[in-house]
Amino acid sequence: MSAFASDAALDDVRDTTGNGTEVDVATNLLAGAVQLSILWTQEILLSPEDAAKVAAALARAADQGSQISSSKPAEHSEPRTPA
Question: Which residue stretches does the UniProt record annotate as biased composition, category Basic and acidic residues (predicted)?
Answer without folding.
Answer: 73-83
